[in-house]
């Protein structure tokens, strides 16, 4: 499976470090039911303590992230009543992601990844708490929402490459697909429950309650992250401050060169960029569909995202269990193409139960492709480049932001339905073009 398959035989034999062996002996006495679960193929990566802690932390950060997908859109729509600003509030996040992601990728390869995650989580929690206070005191204004969007995007620029790289650091190469599938499971479990929780909280107690819970979740995630062991990395001072500065600038350039020259990484980035620009941004308009077309309110919007999360969760389990056996190229391209067709059907629907069903299938098709794209990028990236390739992968969020602004602008001109339909058809057409004109992409494994 690419570069990562070339690990030495010694590494294969010593998959569990000594401290993990000692811990396992204790767990066999205290947690026999848990050990039985960890023998399941879908949960293999959870046998490793560092990955488990990273995974536990992601439970809470994912919950907060998906709650914010409802709370932030609903808040700005309440304050402005503008579908354009639904896209714009996400659009401002492109600025720090675009400017800082290359730096963050090099930082993830040169400095402590654990420290970067900790700092990012603490700042995220403080920003959520601040906006909750602004709402409670009645001082909330649109600029507060935009400012916190900028702040969240800034710290996420540093958190995501470090967290993504640490997944590969905490499990043997042969368990990477399983680990990424498990990450997708927890992320999409949160996608199922987070929006529903936010919708209920907003409907009963107001938007401030959602932001308060989001801040608490980030506090809990920080506790798990603190428990991670110090990374075994070369000291920053070992080469001197000036050497770090030189390697920092050069490493950014080398990361971009590697991502372009490696065919599999390049194809993965191309497919995810098309999806983020033309297909996935339709979720930006969910407040419009929920309030004005389906007439189901904030609770209905939460249910739509929850249904999408349930489909994504089912897909994540499939990837965690059998992802290493899938024809990745075909699934990546086909999953994104089907996603576009499903969005067209969703845009045409005026019946809430049908919309719920379509969102379920959309979630399944998206995660099957998205999780495999991330697996391909990490699998074909050696350890010394992984932070930078993951930074570029997360930098494609800029494309998502541009897509969110575009679909918001189109919705203000032609309505939400036609905006989502036209962009989704273009995305499906792009996948067909990749399938026809890039035959080598179909054979990626």
Number of strands: 0
Q: What Rg, in angstroms, do the CA atoms define?
A: 21 Å
What percentage of the residues does DSSP assign to strands (E)?
Answer: under 5%
User: Which stretches of 5+ consecutive residues score pLDDT under 50?
Assistant: 1-30, 234-246
Give the helix tally: 20
Whole-number mean pLDDT: 80
Percent helix range: over 70%
Question: Structural class of the helices, strands and pairings?
Answer: mainly alpha
Distance between the termini: 7 Å
Q: What is the overall shape?
A: globular
Main beta sheet: none
Helices and strands, in order, run as: HHHHHHHHHHHHHHHHHHHH
Key descriptive features of the protein:
single chain; 445 residues; mainly alpha; 20 helices; disordered N terminus
Give the structure's gist in a few sentences:
The chain has 445 residues and is mainly α.
Fold and architecture overview:
The protein is mostly helical and 445 residues long. The protein has helices at residues 9-13, 18-30, 32-38, 49-80, 83-91, 94-110, 113-136, 142-170, 176-205, 207-226, 241-261, 263-279, 286-293, 297-322, 328-348, 352-379, 383-395, 397-414, 416-437, 439-442. The chain is globular and about 50 Å long.
List the helices and strands and how they pair.
Layout: H1 9-13, H2 18-30, H3 32-38, H4 49-80, H5 83-91, H6 94-110, H7 113-136, H8 142-170, H9 176-205, H10 207-226, H11 241-261, H12 263-279, H13 286-293, H14 297-322, H15 328-348, H16 352-379, H17 383-395, H18 397-414, H19 416-437, H20 439-442
């Amino acid at each position: 499976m690419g570069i990562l398959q070339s690990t030495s035989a010694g590494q294969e034999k010593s998959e569990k470090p000594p401290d993990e062996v000692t811990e396992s002996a204790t767990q066999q006495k205290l947690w026999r039911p848990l050990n039985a679960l960890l023998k399941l193929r879908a949960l293999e990566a959870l046998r490793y303590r560092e990955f488990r802690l990273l995974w536990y932390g992601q439970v809470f950060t994912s919950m907060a992230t998906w709650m914010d997908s409802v709370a932030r859109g609903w808040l700005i729509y309440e304050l402005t009543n503008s579908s354009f600003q639904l896209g714009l509030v996400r659009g401002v996040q492109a600025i720090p992601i675009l400017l800082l992601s290359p730096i963050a990728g090099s930082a993830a390869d040169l400095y402590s990844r654990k420290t970067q995650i900790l700092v990012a989580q603490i700042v995220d929690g403080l920003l959520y708490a601040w906006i909750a206070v602004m709402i409670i005191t009645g001082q909330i204004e649109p600029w507060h929402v935009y400012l916190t969007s900028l702040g969240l995007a800034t710290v996420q620029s540093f958190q995501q490459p470090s967290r993504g790289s640490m997944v590969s650091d905490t499990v043997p190469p042969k368990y990477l697909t399983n680990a990424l599938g498990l990450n997708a499971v927890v992320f999409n479990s949160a996608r199922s429950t987070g929006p529903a929780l936010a919708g209920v909280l907003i409907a009963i107690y107001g938007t401030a309650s959602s932001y308060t819970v989001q801040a608490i979740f980030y506090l809990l995630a920080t506790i798990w992250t603190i428990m991670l062991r110090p990374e075994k990395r070369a000291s920053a001072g070992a080469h001197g401050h000036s050497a770090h500065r030189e390697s920092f600038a050069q490493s950014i350039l080398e990361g971009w060169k590697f991502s372009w020259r490696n065919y599999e990484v390049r194809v993965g980035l191309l497919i995810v960029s098309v999806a983020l620009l033309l297909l996935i941004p339709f979720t930006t308009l969910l407040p419009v569909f929920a309030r004005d077309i389906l007439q189901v309110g904030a609770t209905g919007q939460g249910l739509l995202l929850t249904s999408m999360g349930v489909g994504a969760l089912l897909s994540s389990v499939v990837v965690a269990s059998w992802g290493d056996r899938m024809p990745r190229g075909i699934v990546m391209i086909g999953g994104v193409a089907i996603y576009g067709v499903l969005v067209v059907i969703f845009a045409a629907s005026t019946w809430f139960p049908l919309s719920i069903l379509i969102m379920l299938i959309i979630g399944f098709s998206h995660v099957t492709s998205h999780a495999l794209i991330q697996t391909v990028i990490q699998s074909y990236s050696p350890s010394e480049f992984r932070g930078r390739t993951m930074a570029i992968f997360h930098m494609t969020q800029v494309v998502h932001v541009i897509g969110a602004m575009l679909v918001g602008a189109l919705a203000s001109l032609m309505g939400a339905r036609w905006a989502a339909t036209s962009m989704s058809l273009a995305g499906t057409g792009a996948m067909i073009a990749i399938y026809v004109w890039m035959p080598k992409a179909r054979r990626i494994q």
